[in-house]
Amino acid sequence: MEKGNKIRFVIWGLVWLLVITCTGYGIYAYYNGYGVNGKIREQLAPIADTFNNLNKVKRFNEMGIELKATLLKKGINIKYSTTVSSLNFDFDIKEIGNDTVLYTKYNIADEAIGIVVANALFDTISVKNGHVEDELFEKFEFGELYGTTIEQGGQIKTANNTTEVYVNINNTLLETMSEDVIKNRYISEEDIQNLKDEISKSNTYTYTKSNTQLYLETTENKYIIYLRNGNYDNDLYRSIKSVINSLPLTDEDKNEFMNNYSKIDGPANFGKYTIVLDTNVEAVDYFVTKDKVIKIEIEKEKVE
């Protein structure tokens, strides 16, 4: 080999060695949290892993619906795929003020699937922060995220047929909103601790808290509960539980309700309970607005 060729050979060998070394270091840095992209991966890998291991996500996959989070260079892709269609939601990591968020936007036509994806991602952050799966949406309605802030844990905004989702990767509503704030939205047992005494003196009992109204009627054979807050949501169900736990019922009767009606999901009839949604309350003057009232009749213990 001529001397000039040898020199070129050595130079190109050094160049390729440098390229391989830099590439190797880049891969090492990425997977070990060094550099900008490596730090992003270090933040997002546990989120994607937690998402894919949620029980709700596993249930979708067992039903034949692929729901999967995959790391991107600067974000997370969440795929929702069935045998007939597929949607991909790319959540980009962004710094907004002092908060780090995962951000995506989608067309309002994809709202139903977008809610499924966003619900699971918000729950993922909650679980990653040490909470139990589903705890977030046992305390908060998903719709409340349309009125919260990024600083509180996240925000959803809809305008011009587009929905924008901001998921704070460090905070959740469970940490930023106190129990007192939550309790102000429904009737607690503490609020109606005088209920037993009052219904022993009168055949009606009323109580209003925020936008929740309770009208309770007692007859010789039944307790009749009317409750309204404008929605059949978790807060209304919490109010129902508070009323039932405050009535002079046996533990067996109370457990019967909790075991057979764990959320408001329609009318029902079981044991001593009859539940009617959108009941007619025209005769009950207590309710100014008379729609979306739930009625629960409970048979009293027969006295021999």
**Biggest beta-sheet profile:** 6 strands, antiparallel
Strand order of the largest sheet: 1-2-3-4-6-5
Range of helix content? 25-40%
Structural class: alpha+beta
Radius of gyration: 28 Å
Mean pLDDT: 86
What count of helical segments does DSSP give? 10
Describe the structure.
The chain is elongated. The protein has 304 residues and is of the alpha+beta class. The chain starts with a helix and ends in a 5-residue tail after the last strand. Helix 2 (35-52) packs across helix 4. The protein has helices spanning 3-31, 35-52, 55-62, 111-128, 135-139, 173-176, 179-183, 195-201, 234-246, 251-260; strands at 66-72, 75-81, 86-96, 99-107, 154-159, 162-168, 204-209, 212-218, 222-228, 268-270, 273-276, 294-299. Strands 1-2-3-4-6-5 form a six-stranded antiparallel sheet.
